[in-house]
Structure formats: C-alpha cells, structure tokens
Write a structure and sequence with these properties.
The chain is mostly helical. The protein has a domain of 53 residues. It is built from four helices and two strands, in the order ββαααα. It has a two-stranded antiparallel ribbon. A hairpin with a 5-residue loop joins β1 and β2. It starts with 8 loop residues before the first strand and ends in a 21-residue tail after the last helix. The mean pLDDT is 75.
Length: 97
Amino acid sequence: MLTVRVPLAARKQRGGRKLVLTPVSTTNRGSSAADITLVKALARAFRWRRMMEAGRYGTIDELAAAEMINSSYVSRLPRLTLLAAGDRGGHPGRAAT
C-alpha cells in the first residue's frame, strides 16, 4: 500500500470561496511535473491508438477492460494524438519548445 500525503490548508475568503495553499517547497517545482504527466499521457495515447489500428481491440470498452482503466478516460486520451507537433506541451503563457 502506498500512502501519499500532500499538506494543504484551506482558508475562506470573502464570498465563502476557499483558497487552497500548498507549502512553498512544493509550488516551486517548475513545469517538469506537468511535462512528465503530458509525456506519459501521449505515450499511452499513441500505444492505445496503435493497438486499436492493429485490430487488437475492436472497441474502446474492450481496450479499457484490458487496461483496467475507465472507458471514458480511454476514449478521451487518444485525442492527444491528433494534435499538431507544435501544439504538444504548449501552455497559453509559454511558447512551445
């Protein structure tokens, strides 16, 4: 069993909205964590696309059952393979590299 603890503090602001604060040490990680997540998602998407195109699985539901993942997630992820190469990893406030 793996236990992950993320220290968070919720504070109420005017209007009843909550503001979630993380410790300074975790917010200064940069964009590498997001990039790793995107790379993993792209790898899965291309792998699943190859399996579907090769005829290994006939439907997304079959693929989801084999991968033991929710079918709605499996149906959304392959859309990443349709992005242009310049769009991958792009962030609205950052130029794609």
